Amino acid sequence: MPARPFGVYAHPKGERILIACRTLFSAARDFTRVSQSLNGLLTGDLQIGLVDNLASLPGSPFSQALKQFLQRRQDVQLHCRICSPGEIEQGLLNRQLDLGIGYFGQQLAALAYRPWLAETQAVYCSSDHPLFTQPNPGREHIENARWIQRGYLLAQQLCPLAPTDLGAVAFHMESVVHLILSGEYIGYLPTHYAARWVERGELRQLGGRR
């Protein structure tokens, strides 16, 4: 006998009540922050969305920024979560996040963007890829390989190269690494993040630094 899917179903009136409740909770949260800050003490919750693998950045800039913040007079509870750039922007728009750190190919008019740091990325292939053993693979060979496209970037934002075969899409850096290590794709990785696999001889930098 087929089972009926279990779940919660809201009628249009119920959906309106749900939206109103979310608005109420958000307003109550803002009121609490303002009222508690009147005595000069930072309080409340701080929701932060991060792209993955910031920890391998030289000097750990995010960790250092957290340290400086936590040494201030405050009583703030931090909530940190790993998100794709698109999820960060959506969380900010929905007021589920207060701050987002990541790479954003296109900027939304409803959000305020500030530059934080520069990151060098390069094209990599794995030891199982045909380009790995070529002494000096030319630009044409690199562009004609199967590429990984970042889900939050347009194809033309893969410059300075112009790949012709975008065979996979990835939204997180770790998923890019898994696809490259399969030996079937090449793609961009931050040099600080790829360094561990390069040292083990599992990845090779092909160029295309940006």
From TrEMBL:
Pfam families assigned? LysR_substrate
**Biological process, per Gene Ontology:** regulation of DNA-templated transcription
Domain LysR substrate-binding residue range list: 41-204
Q: Which GO terms of the molecular function aspect are on file?
A: transcription cis-regulatory region binding
Q: What keywords appear on the UniProt entry?
A: Transcription, Transcription regulation
The UniProt record lists the keyword S-adenosyl-L-methionine: no
UniProt-listed InterPro entries: LysR_subst-bd
Similarity comment: Belongs to the LysR transcriptional regulatory family.
Name of the protein described by the UniProt record: LysR substrate binding domain
